[in-house]
Amino acid sequence: MVSVRTAALVTLLGQYAQAILPIHLKGDRFIRPASPTSEADDNNAFFVIGIDYQPGGSSAYDGRNGRDVLSDEELCARDAAVFQQLGVNTIRIYSLNPDLNHDKCMTILNNAGIYVILDVNSGNYGESLNRADPSGSYNEDYLRRVFKFIDAFKNYPNVLGFFAGNEIINDERNYAEINPQYIRAVQRDIKQYIEKHANRKIPVGYSAAQVLELQKPTLNYLQCNSKDGTTEDEDLEDSRSDFFGLNTYKWCSSSHNWQTSGYAEMNQTYADTIIPLIFSEYGCNQRTPRTFEETTDGLYGGLTHSFSGGLIYEYSNEGNNYGLVEIEHNGNIRYRKDFEHLQQRYRSLKIPQIKESLLEDKLFICSDEKVGDKRFGTKDFKIPEQPKGIADMIKDGAKGSNTGSILSNYAGPTTFRYTIYDSDNKVVPATVSYDPANFQNSLGTVVSVSAPSSTQSEPASSSKNAAALPTYLAKCGISLLLVSLASLL
Q1: I need a labelling partner for 260 at 20 to 30 A (CA). Which of 102, 275, 357, 437 fits?
Q2: What is the pLDDT of residue 66?
Q3: Is this entry keyworded Glycoprotein (predicted)?
């Protein structure tokens, strides 16, 4: 007879061996494990090939109406099919309701091999830092909502990371002076909450506005983790960004090249970055349809030395002419020429193979000189204290009503009632493809586990996975007291 403790251990093995494998960090790269038992020599850097996703735009989000972009499983299946046709591996979502259940949509995305980067904030009042009044908006009510958001999504293995803020610092007024320390404070609080309540380290980052003179100072301020440049400071490490996103629209289709776009200069500017760096928004639309030379010739060309991919803005057309698709009133999808051009570009990408074993974690000194902008409010790199009650909330939990998880016995839809058309009005035969390697199968099922689009590994027995699990969990920051299986039987 198998004891409860044995069953619990094997269940944990099943969760990490039989679902999409969580991304972890090493140096300035995201890392996707080759398998749950893989070593650093087996693992390669993960490049984000993605799009920004918020159908209806930010104005369509309403936390009171009982729905958001991940609450309808058939819409999620429809869009997952489009993601697969486009060739993306990651989407970014700006606004979600932490009180809603997202298990079906997150399971669809997981099983389809799609990672997500989630903004913890929304545009609603009290649900983000007020850039004009960061000290007043950094309060218990705001952080409670953030922590509830973490609870809602922390158990999904396909959550690549959380953005703690988006475009808070810009060139208006004194925002570069008064906001930076509060961004670090929110990152600190989120990371402490994750450490206490999640079963793995989930990266926490920041997405910066396209204010060229402030982007590099913002990165340097948020990535620094050492007071003297020789030793890591625990408090600074606790509050720094784990990854960083740039919103940039410098390279416009058919108008720029590697030199005139500033990409060559950017390659030098960001060469000393010590955390993963992505374009969190890009895709200039001065000329349409966009042809996206900045992908093959830029971000996934010369910039791969410093950057780890990016997210094209945006999925659906919301009146600003950035959309890759039109969503019709009946829910049908119509590809724009932009979609087909980007699809061709993504299909021709040549992603470099960078082994995890060649990477190392580094230090970046926190100094005014390194930040390099006098307007920046470094305040000797002191971080605001947590509001009253936050330490207890981090300890005891936010006590939200919703904690999501991947569904183990859910067969997501492969078809849907919506029709997808190409730009010539021809029907696109589209179904969602689910890689069995991404499934969270029933207890006891043995599978070959691989990352999407990679070669499958040898089938591994439960005992082999049990022996290798601590190494894998350690890479993801998961603590485990492992007792010999033999002693539990």
Answers
A1: 275
A2: 85
A3: yes
pLDDT band at residue 19, thresholds of 50, 70 and 90? low
Terminal Cα-to-Cα distance of the chain (whole angstroms): 7
d(CA 360, CA 362): 6
What are 161's two structure tokens?
């990371």
> How many CA atoms lie less than 13 Å away from 281 in the CB half-sphere?
23
Q: What is the pLDDT of residue 374?
A: 77
420 compared with 466, residue with greater pLDDT: 420
Triad 275, 293, 276: Cα angle to 5°: 5
* DSSP code at position 239: H
Residue 268 in domain: yes
232 is catalytic: no
Asked whether residue 57 is assigned to any structural domain, the reply reads yes
Domain membership flag for residue 9: no
**Is the Cβ–Cβ distance between 170 and 214 less than 8 Å?**
yes
| Domain encompassing residue 311 | 26-396
* Residue 2 is assigned to a structural domain of this protein: no
- Out of 281, 293, 294, 314, the active site residue is 281
Q: How far apart (Å, rounded) are the C-alpha atoms in residues 9 and 427?
A: 48
Number of domains the chain contains: 1
Question: Rounded to whole angstroms, what are the CA distances from 343 to 199, 272, 331, 353, 454?
Answer: 36, 32, 21, 22, 20
**Cα–Cα dist 160/181, whole Å:** 24
- Mean local confidence (pLDDT), 332-361: 98
Rounded mean pLDDT of 466-479? 47
Average pLDDT on 146-151 reads 98
Provide CB contacts within 8 A for 219, sequence distance 6+. 208, 241, 244, 270, 273, 277
pTM over 0.85: yes
**Residues 199, 205, 207: CA angle, nearest 5 degrees:** 150
Which CB contacts under 8 angstroms, 24+ apart, belong to 137-140? 138/182, 138/185, 138/186, 138/384, 138/387, 139/387, 140/387, 140/388, 140/389, 140/390, 140/393
pLDDT over 60 at 450, yes or no: no
CA distance 205 to 75: 28
Q: Which of 74, 167, 195, 340 is catalytic?
A: 167
We report the CATH number of the domain holding residue 382 as: 3.20.20.80
pLDDT score recorded for residue 71: 96
